[in-house]
# Entry
Amino acid sequence: MNYGEFLSSFLIDLQRLFRMELSTSDLTYSQILAIISIPDNGIEMSELSFVLGLDNSTVTRLVIRLENKLWVERKKSRRDQRAVKVFLTNKGVNIQQIIEKKIDNIGEKFNLEFNEKDKETLFNSLLSFQWTLKKLFLKK
# Structure
């Protein structure tokens, strides 16, 4: 298996895991990714688009659906009145915390599968892998 095949398989497996463990009838996978990507101090729409790897128009529709559920709100940026920032509402913060607990539970399942030495090796390898992914985006 080469790196391309591995990355494709890895992505599919992770998406399946997250969809099965986190998605509910009223919370889609895309909404989950958006909610966990919004920091406490909000995020500009263009940055959220970059983080999610989606077009601005797609993220706008996603954010509108989240607004309709009263999980987020949009406000003009104080720094640049042309930019719009997305913030979690109190309901959104609660949803984010529920998602984060579920993600922690997934992490605990992985934690139980490895001995202490392997845990450290795997964690360091995954950190290196993630850093490499981020560097690839910084080069563009």
About this structure: The mean pLDDT is 91.
